[in-house]
Amino acid sequence: MIRKPLALGDMSVGGLRYFNVLDPVAADFDIFPVVHSLSRIRRWGGKIIVPYTVGMHSLVCGRVVMERTGLPHFALAALCHDMHEGVLGFDMPSPFKRVLGGMMEGYERRIDLVIEARVSVVPGLMKHAVVKAVDRDAVNCEGLCFGMDTVEPDQRRWVQPGYSPPRGMLQAIQEEIAHGDNDDGVEARLLEAVEMYGGRIR
Length: 202
Fold this sequence. Notes:
This is Metal dependent phosphohydrolase. The model has no long low-confidence stretch (mean pLDDT 94). The chain has a two-stranded antiparallel sheet with strand order 1-2. The chain is mostly helical.
């Protein structure tokens, strides 16, 4: 048997399979190991004491978009907006992304195009203003809830002084934490949510 050498950008996704992050191909994308990864990657670079993952954040965003719009295709886009992190295997903090400039966003966008094709997300919807607004709400609310910024408005470093967590967002985050799932439970609920919002898992 002739061993095929790894190409630059090849990343293992388990089961002796690889996904090239520099030249992503839809045929190489498998949602199952990606969702497995999302359910285990801790948000905020693992710097919070609450066991809160990227998968849980994704479920919150999908739920809140569905509550605000009633549109499953928007909810699917929100659910999948960080799915590239499951491919890459880490949650890169936004301040460091800004240090890298557009380079990281370019890699993520290539992966997002593959996710759109394989999961049946409407092209471009993951970057829609509605999805971005809910993601921003979630980040601000998480920041205050998990002690990444102070709740005192006049002492905040990055959450705007006038920001107050919307009730629906705060409730969604609290209920997600209270759900008490282990990582496998989050993984199962992510797959269920993809199908519930009209996406494909196979």
